[in-house]
Amino acid sequence: MQVDELKEHISSYAVELLKERGISKLYPPQEEAVRRGLFSGRNMVIAIPTASGKTLIAELAMIHEVIRGGKCLYTVPLKALASEKYREFRKWSDIGVEVGISTGDYDSRDEWLGNADIIVTTSEKADSLVRNQAGWIRNISMLVIDEAHLIDSAKRGAVIEVLVAKLRKINPSLRILALSATIPNADEIAEWLNAELVESEWRPIPLYEGVFYPGKILKLNEGGVIEVKAGRNVESVVKETLEEGGQVLIFESTRRNAESLAEKLSSVVRDYAEDCSDLAEEVLIENEGEMSQRLARCVRYGSAFHHAGLLNYQRELIERAFRERRVKVICATPTLAAGVNLPARRVIVKGIRRYESGMGSVFIKVSEYKQMAGRAGRPGLDSYGEALIVAKTRNEAVEMMERFVLGEPEKVTSKLGSENHLRFHTLSVIAEGIANTLEGIEDFFSSTFFAYQNEFTMRWEIQRIVLQLEKWGFVRSDGTIVATEIGDLISRLYIDPLTGYIFKEAARRFDNLTEMALLHLICRTPDMELLYLRKSDEWVEEEAYAFRDELTYFPSYYSSEYDWFLREFKTALCLHDWVNERDEDVICSKYGIAPGDLRRVVETAEWLFHALERIMEHHGNGLSVEVGRLGERIRHGVREELVELVKLKWIGRKRARKLYNAGIKSLDDLVEKRSVAERLIGKRIVERVLAEHRR
Ligand SMILES: Nc1ncnc2c1ncn2[C@@H]1O[C@H](COP(=O)(O)OP(=O)(O)OP(=O)(O)O)[C@@H](O)[C@H]1O
């Protein structure tokens, strides 16, 4: 089908824009979606492989909806993906379609988005906008769920189903378009959504899958499994691809493996890559710690590693350099497969097992492997893509072939049934006034995918949770169930009610807490991601005893909670070093973490301090002022006296300290002692600061 045929549905202007993007003809699954009612207003589930054009299907449907006066919400699982989609959709502004993005603080309403036609956001942020009753949510006429198969995710899946159920309650005629990878039970998702299902295995570039073992590759071909000659090791397979002008994406199970393989491969890659010294320098712009140095050394020769320990700008830099074909090989942990779109000629899956606590080394899921394999083949550059699993022996290769290459991905199952998810969403359903009886709450949850998949009633579970919320003082029940003021606040702050309870109790009991006690308090909540304890971390216990009298909680050495407590305390100690201006690299090596981990801990702590401040305020507890100040220090990683300086753009914790020690404590001081400041932090930076803040 030619795109010209779409004029009546999306306008000739939109068709012209598509042509400018080089799209003149629809891919077969796209055509199928059109034929099956993409412009008819019915709900749809599109379950097709990676890179087969799902996003364009959504764009066509959204443009059609906007032309008819509708408003679309496009939800993705990660902030990075939201930015990627926002950049893509911005192109539609050329024909007058307003595109907005919302990924900021959880309790903001982002009212300015009232004017946007298409709003891109994460599922969590969308749910928090519903909780905070952003006015424009009522006007949403179409919901697009990207990566809908992530309903299966233990951490992020529940919010997708609850969001769907809520938005359908708000607007019963809401249209839903769910985009998913190929999964065996896409029909269940379609039936749950009352949607037309479009399924296809079509790919724009053929994908060949196989298993490598030293000397040979078992390949799946149209005629069956064949065996072809190959090199002795992964390096030789990589070399072969580079020789043919392709790029390689390698998945490893751990960060350490990814890093050391990238380092090892840099001596192979350097013969095929141009000089990337400029990129290596860029890697070190914000951080010169051990991990960044290793990354810079690899990148110089066109090889890189990619995992959650990198800083955001480093990840983006690597991804961009790979797209520009300067970086030729990326060794990544599996987080990359679920994230941004980064195809390569060859995908090598080296980490086919993963360590799971209590279970040891287990195979990854077939669906995870398929997600990685699906990254092979770069549209416009490669005529085919190839995915290879790495095995040690022929026997193992045969086993991998059967289990993964010929295996069927697992079914998607709802994760909403776990207590913490139900607790979290039950409070919001009551606070938003969606339901105010047990039957009403049950009725609400009966429209979720969980209820679709599970026949048993949730009544007892919900009753137990409501009783718990009542005991904590978050809901009141006398015939009808309503949220108390604090319950409503906790729902809007988007924290686990258990976190809310811990904070509320602290607000009730204490009017004086030390810096360390406050830091430890937020680390006691289920919303904080805790650092792990290493064997060499005995010092954590010693430090904990030193602070024993200050803390709000200190279990007995014999308690089953003692080890968990040490993890909480270690995390608090890390934040303590951060707000006391310990050097970032020193913190990373002391706590055994990477810069990206530190930033994540800091970001979560900042959010929790904001919530704690609001709850203290609500309780009329004067500690709220102190909590607010500490929150500000966490944001910037500084002692109290630097807060004013770091609020200035371009002034980070290091520059602020230099200025402060020279007697420059504010913007006024900076203006007055400009030449001193220029000597300390550079003329260009001072110019930038003054240009930004000159009154
Ligand atoms: N009909 C088409 N003709 C030419 N190129 C197309 C067409 N449809 C999509 N593309 C291009 O193919 C590439 C992959 O498409 P897209 O990102 O939409 O796939 P996807 O299925 O959404 O991928 P993912 O599974 O990663 O979300 C994009 O560069 C897109 O512009």
From TrEMBL:
Gene Ontology molecular functions: 3'-5' DNA helicase activity; ATP binding; ATP hydrolysis activity; DNA binding
Record-annotated Helicase ATP-binding domain positions: 35-201
Residue ranges occupied by any Helicase C-terminal domain in the UniProt entry: 233-428
Matching Pfam families: DEAD, Helicase_C, Helicase_dom4_arc, HTH_61
Major enzyme class: isomerase
EC number: 5.6.2.4
Entry-linked SMART domains: DEXDc (SM00487), HELICc (SM00490)
Family indicated by similarity: Belongs to the helicase family. Hel308 subfamily.
Biological role: DNA-dependent ATPase and 3'-5' DNA helicase that may be involved in repair of stalled replication forks.
Subunit structure: Monomer.
Protein's recorded name: ATP-dependent DNA helicase Hel308
Organism annotation: Geoglobus ahangari
Top-level taxonomy: Archaea, Methanobacteriati, Methanobacteriota, Archaeoglobi, Archaeoglobales
Gene: hel308
